[in-house]
Specification:
Layout (H helix, E strand, L loop, with lengths): L28 H22 L10 H8 L1 H34 L5 H11 L4 H12 L4 H10 L12 H25 L3 H9 L4 H29 L3 H6 L7 H11 L3 H29 L2
Helix pairs in contact: 1-12, 2-12, 3-7, 3-9, 4-7, 5-7, 7-9, 8-9, 9-12, 11-12
Amino acid sequence: MAVPGCAGTPPQGPAPRGPRRVPVSLWAVPPVAALALAFLYPLALVVQQSFTPDEGGTSLAPYTEVFASESFRSALTTTVWLALGSTTGCLVLGFVLALVIAFVPFPGARAVARFIDVFLSFPSFLITLALLFVYGTVGMANGVWTGVTGASDGPFHFLTTPWGVLLAEITYFTPFVMRPLLAAFSQLDTAQLEVASSLGARPARIVRRVILPEALPALAAGGSLVLVMCLNEFGIVLFTGAKGVTTLPMLVYSKAILESDYPAACVVAVVNIVISVGLYGLYRVVSRRAGA
């Protein structure tokens, strides 16, 4: 048997090395670079433009002028109350509809649940256009009314008011609340419902004491998503043609496209971004403290 190091034993070279492993941190470079190029850089340009008045230089004058204008304060108020009203309506309507689909047996419940998934892919202007066909000035409802009564005009003109925008947003965003609720209801132990029912609890009490506590995280997630999306909604307000309803996204559009006042448009856009990011941060803090 040959002993290493003795005569006649061939020298052994270094052990072959395996392929070098790329550090995990390097895999984050391509997506971060793409994000910076496609989103962060244009966002930085918007912020920079908001501090650059038409006369040149860097100044807070665009912020001072926008914050002092009545149009901005009115748009901010309209945006907030429409977002809060739409979110409240979506939470109530979405919870009721999700309860019916999940716990009330009826033919086609599974098909309705699948339709909700398809509904989420629809663009917002499509739902608004459908409402216009039904409740518009020359829509089906007014056409039936004039055909029956012989009147020259129908009574349905609310789509061009803030209530029409509210109806369109609730109609479009309710499935965004129902989807997480249906997922939460599918994981609910039905034995709890059977025990509560056997103990004599009425359906309202079962919903309040058993189902609602399990649905609160899903309600919070869906409600926060709807709130942020309503704050930034543009297509619904534009397609309803509601007169006197100017939200922050509509104000950005009017300042940039109609008035060519790009510094003011960037100021409004920055305010809208700050509100959205602030709400998202608040939701993260609250959900983390609640253990959701």
